[in-house]
Amino acid sequence: MPFKHTARVFRTAVLAVLGLVWLLPVYLLLVNAAKSPATFTTKESWLPTDFALFGNIAEALRLSGLAESAASTLLYAVVSPAIAVLVGAAAGFAIVALRLRHGFAWFVAIFGGTVFPLQMILLPLFDAYSRTGLFDTQAGMIIVYTAISIPFSAFVMRNFFSGIAHSVFEAAVIDGASTWRIFARVYLPMASSALVAIFILQATFIWNDFLLGLVLSQSDTVRPIVTSLAGMQSTYGGAQMSTVLAGGLLVSLPTVVLFLFTQKFFARGLALGQY
Amino acid sequence: MSDTTPNPRARRRREPYRRPALGFIAPGVLLVAVLLYLPLVWTTFLSLTEYNGLGDPEWIGLENYVEMFDDPGFVGSVLNTLLWVAGTLLVPVGIGLGVALLTWNLKGGTWLRLPFLIPYALSGIGVGVIWSFILSGDGALDQALAAFGVDDTPRWLVDAPLNTVVMILATAWQGVGVNALLFTIGLQSIPREPLEAARMDGANGLRLFRSILWPMLRPLTAVVVGLSIVASLKTFDIVQGMTKGGPGRDSETLALTMYKETFVNSEYGLGSAIAVFLTVVTLLASILYLRQQLSSKHGV
Asked: Signal sequence span per UniProt (chain A) (predicted)?
């Protein structure tokens, strides 16, 4: 049908043009992050001049302690979701497989931790962290990131375990396995895809966190990378813009690449309420 | 003994794994209780006190809430936040739906969707760094406009409420892809039969959308709209990154006002009251989508 064909060409054309517009900021970021501070000017942004991207990235890592931040943030983004995934799975296991009484109420109690804004916990956390010596420590950051990752993790794991027939559990009991063994050897391996999905989503969330890092840390070695980038932007945004842009690129690359390769996980998680 | 009398053994039979179950659920409950609920209660309490971090909080009842609504800066912040809610519904959700519909059943659709997805996983600060650069005076946007003969450009990040509008557009740049992805999943899950039937009846374009697609996308739309409202109410990173709420307090959002009152002005009571206000509004908006979400059959 000619009409259908025209419609397809039209749709493709609209999407292609819009897509190019969407890529313009990415283009500008790449071109300007690659300009050496000597040739960079805010008045000529659209054309590339030279290629000093790696020099700029090295400089960005030096400024504002971005290198130390990167190492710490990697630690937070791996350890916290890993713990949260296991804690969430254990909660789901207790509710679904062990049929904990009032299981739904317990579930709502855990899941409810995610429905209010972070603003509601910032000040008491800051206060308590200052008093207990957790302020500006890596342990403090890991603890808070773990806690805020648990509700979503428990939510997904409860859903997932609900899909496993209870006879699986009963069969394992008859085989003489302990509850711990059933959890670790039967339920966790079956849930690996869900565990990975939660892990990826929470790792991205933690990598991109700004607010908790802003309130609960101050030194270069503890401060998460996005908070460091914000500091770098306010300090050097005027004089060394190309370096700041290179820093922005560096900070953004891991999550963007991770996301593009794991879109399906994200899409499912998103429909469940992680935005 | 009759069957209706509860005794320990019967209870044990009904709930044979009580002890291990409590052990399995305890870490999650404890962490959430100590790090999320306890602070929540403390903030609520502080909102009823006068406190600056030194000495003890002094009970003043609802005074912080009265003071809050008397402050024109706070009212401006509420209005900006509403602008964020409306803007992020209109632009990223709207364009996202558009992109999903355009790529639906289109050859190469996955690739055509890719440019919109690239910005999604950026942090708010990352988006802010890029767009501050583009929107700065004589920056990339002004240069492009000058090439078309437009020289008298506004100060994008200075003039209010234009600064909020351009920040919403920057957020839209980031958010369109993910909404498109969600709507695409929704479209793919629509059963074929009613679609074929409607097509046989000659439904096309707008009519097909109105009569079949839109009603079938309704549950998903509720989730996307709810998520978008809740996320926009909490807007903080990008504003802090691009304007710090300025100039003056012109582009502040509720989350920013709370942050400033608490951590810049050390008005702990007032800051807590703003946090409580933000939470109440967010919870009301959450009900919109939580109802849908908790009864949904999506699973990972």
From this structure: none
